Amino acid sequence: MNNVLEVKQVSKVYDGRHGVHQLDFTMERGEIVGFLGPNGAGKTTTMRMITGYLQPTTGSIAVDGQSVHDQGRTVRSKIGYLPETPPLYPDMTVQSYLKFVANLRDVPAREIKLRVSEMVSRLGLQAREKQLVRGLSKGYKQRLGLAGAIIHKPDLLVLDEPTSGLDPNQIIEIRDLIRELGENHTVLLSTHILPEVSTLCNRMLIINQGQLVLDGSPQHFGSSMGDQFKVFIEVKATEQQLHNLLAPWEKVRSEVIEPSDGKSSTGQQETVRMLLTGESPDDFREELFYLLSGAGLPILEMRKENLSLEQIFLKLTTTETDAESSDVNDMNEESAVSPAEEESK
C-alpha cells in the first residue's frame, strides 16, 4: 500500500450545518499536495481532523492504514503538524523547546541530543539554541515550529499557512525548506498564496463550502478547464496581412497584443503578436498552422494559453455562504493546541 493518508467520506457537522461534507481523497508517499480554498471553506477543520485534534461526524481517516480515531496515539506519532500560529512556549530556549517536544514525541533518550542538533542545523537555527523563543523573529518562530513538527521523523507533514506573515526573504527560505522536506516526507500544505502551489506542489486539492471541487495536477487543470481554446502566436507579417487572413475565419476571434509597423529601419519585416480565442474548446492549432503557412507567413512562436491558478480558483470558489461563516466562527472558538495538550489526549 503506497497511500500514506486516506480520507474517506468525511463530514463534520456544526450545529446542524456541514463545515466539511463527504471529503474523499488519498495521498501517496512522497507527494507534496497543495490544499486550497477560500476563508471558511473547511481547510483548517479538515487538517485538524487529519491530525486528530477533531473527530469527524461521519467517515474515516487513516494514516499508513491505521485509524486516526481508533489508534490515535500511534497515528499521531506518524504525523507532524505546523498550525498557522506555532504553539511555542515563549519562556523556553530554542534548545529546551526542541528537547521538550522530542520527549513528548517519544524520541529515544539516547537520540534526543543528536536529533536536536540535526533540527538546529537543518532549520538554520544555529547560534540561537540558547535564545528565548519570545525573542525570535516570526520567520525563526516558523522555523522552530517546523523543527518541532519533524523532530520525530513523521511520515505525514501537515502545514497550515507556513509562510503567512513572513517577509519575501523568509518566504523563499521556508519554501526551500518545504521542498527539501518533500524529499523524505508526504506533505499536505494549506496556503492562500497560489504561486506556492505551482512552485512546490505536484498536486492540488481545492475545497469550497466544505466540499472537494478539484483534485489533480496544477498544470493539467490549467489546460483542461477553459471554456474556450486560446493560442498565442507571433508571426512575421503586418497587422493588415493577418487581419485579411483571419477575419473570414469564423472559428476564432483575434486580439492584437503587439502590432507591427510594417518595415523596421533596417528593412527587416517586423512581427505581430496576437491572441486567438476559439469559439469552442476545440484545438485549432493544426488548422491555424496550415492557414498561415499557406499564406507564406512564417510562425515564429505558437503556444497554447492555459488558465492561471488564480482563474481556476475563482472559477471554482465564487461565493462564500453562511455555512462557511459558521465554520470560521467555530474555528475561531477553538484555540491552538500545545504539544503538552496534544499528548494528554
From TrEMBL:
Tell me where in this chain the ABC transporter domain is found: 5-234
Output compositional bias ranges, type Acidic residues.
Answer: 321-333
Q: Which GO terms describe its molecular function?
A: ATP binding; ATP hydrolysis activity
Quote the InterPro entries the UniProt record gives. Answer: AAA+_ATPase (IPR003593), ABC_transporter-like_ATP-bd (IPR003439), P-loop_NTPase (IPR027417)
Q: Does the keyword Thylakoid apply?
A: no
Q: Where is this region: Disordered?
A: 319-345
Q: What keywords were assigned to this record?
A: ATP-binding, Nucleotide-binding, Transport
Keyword presence, RNA-binding = no
Q: Which Pfam families match?
A: ABC_tran
> What domain of life?
Bacteria
Give the UniProt family note.
Belongs to the ABC transporter superfamily.
| Protein name stated in the entry | ATP-binding cassette domain-containing protein
Organism from which the protein derives: Paenibacillus xylanilyticus
